[in-house]
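Researcher: Predict the fold of Ribonuclease R.
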Amino acid sequence: MTITIKEKITEALENYRDAAEPLELFRALGLNDKDQFAAAVQELEQEGVLVATKKGRLLSVKSAGLTPAQMISQSKGFSFARPLEGGEDIYVAQEDRKRAMLGDTVLLRDIRDGGKGLSGRVEKIIRKGNRLFTGTVVRRGRDLELELDGAFRYQVPVEKKGSLHGKNGDKVQAILSYGPRSGKLTARILKVYGKAASAKVCADAIIDANGIPKKFKKETLREAEKLSREPITPAERKKRADLREQLIFTIDGADAKDLDDAISVEKDGAGWKLGVHIADVSHYVKEGSLVDEEAKQRGTSVYFADRVIPMLPEALSNGCCSLNAGEEKLAFSCFMTLDRKGNLRGYRFQKSVICSKVRGVYDEVNQVLEGCAAERLKEKYQPVLASLQAGQELAQLLEAKGRRRGTMDFESSEARFFLDQNGTCVDILPRSQGLSEKMIEQFMILANQAAALYAKCLEIPFVYRVHEDPDPERLNTLQQLAAGLGLRARRIQEGVRSADLSDLLRQAEGTPAQNIINHQVLRTLAKARYDNKPLGHFGLNLDDYCHFTSPIRRYPDTAIHRILTGVAEGITVDRLQKKYHDFSREAAVLSSACELRAQRAERQAEKCYMAEYMRRHLGETFDGIVSGATARGIFVQLVNSVEGFVGVEDFPDCEFQFDGLLTHTDVRSGRRLTVGDPMKVQVAAADVATGRIDFTPAE
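Model: Structure tokens for Ribonuclease R follow.
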């Protein structure tokens, strides 16, 4: 209901010539709940849609000629702000930022183009960002300064009074504030994590800096423990499909403990019968419970090299919800029938009770499917061997159908980190995908598609996984890059189809340009997110898609399980709309934000672990490929996925000119440094605290 009120207020204010009295606006809109009106006004002000004048009157930001923006970087004498509606970043001089700080949402005025770009002034801070920052302590004579993480471009003095005692090289958390009289920015240390040269310590700081909750509340843990001890009653079994005798099994990583999906596959004369059986988290996590509220705020499990921060307490995620082999478990099953060409001919969703027959491991199943398994593994997988073989055949059909449809198949650039007993990174290898990983991926995609089709057909509130069309400007950059690398790129323009980008990826496959094209295509695509409307999925080239298959680690999956449970219980569409319309929208918005937060933290921590590993190899040489170019130099990526920077000044007796896209050319010798070229480098420096790695040419 608040959403409707916000839309009414926004539309009304945009039609007002001057600022409106709140009471006058309230009456004009015919509203009768002043508390809801006040809450909606407060939300709109925080979102930068309206502003309150000094006299308390309400004014549309658009009508006032103001631009809502977020402060995205901060240097000593200036900052940059990014408009919330997109567009060019705006320069804000120190004297014009009104003590706005990195992360603040502000209203900008007097925006003008001075020839070198846009500049503006802060009119008002409408929402303060987090004042807690992390960084590394640096000693300057007798004083300490804080080299802040992120987009702070200068070191901030540490307050001598009230700060914890941080030492040179410590990773710390501090609160920043402007002096009431001097206006000078200072830092007060609140927490000391340990030495910044440790990636594990840096990961601790990254988790806090991104606001990721590490511990569950005691009350939540008690509730989860109680839920985990609840037995499966005869009455509950009676309400479900009894699949305990069926050949159902899981396939996961060797060290996975939260097993949330199992499969059953059978081939017959007409095609295939595929079952995807998902842990019935919604049976245990009820709406409004303590566990549910914490799960909603966490949004997703977060994965680091040395730990997992789960969305659900372990009593649920690794306990009663996990589909462990040989144990009776509650599931939500998707039964699908496919013809001999792999076309989906039918599907149904039903609550079930299962008992997994085998705890499959990806590496082991790959050996079985490739015919190189030892006798021990052959014996382990004998009960489900026919299912595995049928599954592999079906998965290959589905994968081929996806390619014909235009699904983009990215070569994984993810890294696997290997740590010693002290948590120090001692090796990094590229993560590979075998036959079983591809099989499970195809089956999960199909089940997700079926769930989205089902929800759209029923016209029920839902949480869809959406992926919108690429940005035209980024497409232009990709087109220039691909053409410069000698690839066919004529179709890479506005209105591009996913099949065109898929073709580009196939052209680059197996060439030095593969990683670069993979990376640039990913940068070109919009970020996938969640929405309560079926807006389609560009990357998979599907009109309808959702996330149904991982409710232990993703809240949107839990949310749609809850809605589909209502369908299974016979609740009418009208009642489902009333009950879950606002919930589905809220779950989509929160889950999208939590996913971005998790991805950001995971990337930051990976850089620290990569730098920690490369510090052990200072002075050593490695083979790599030029993966990017800027005016200042080039990036080189090693086989193990580690990327470092080589500055143009590191090439003696050279004078390089940059073409603005992918090549530096030495005007003296004619030597070219081009994206995609092989290059041998030496490790010059690796800073764990920032994740920065520097190489120098080794040839």
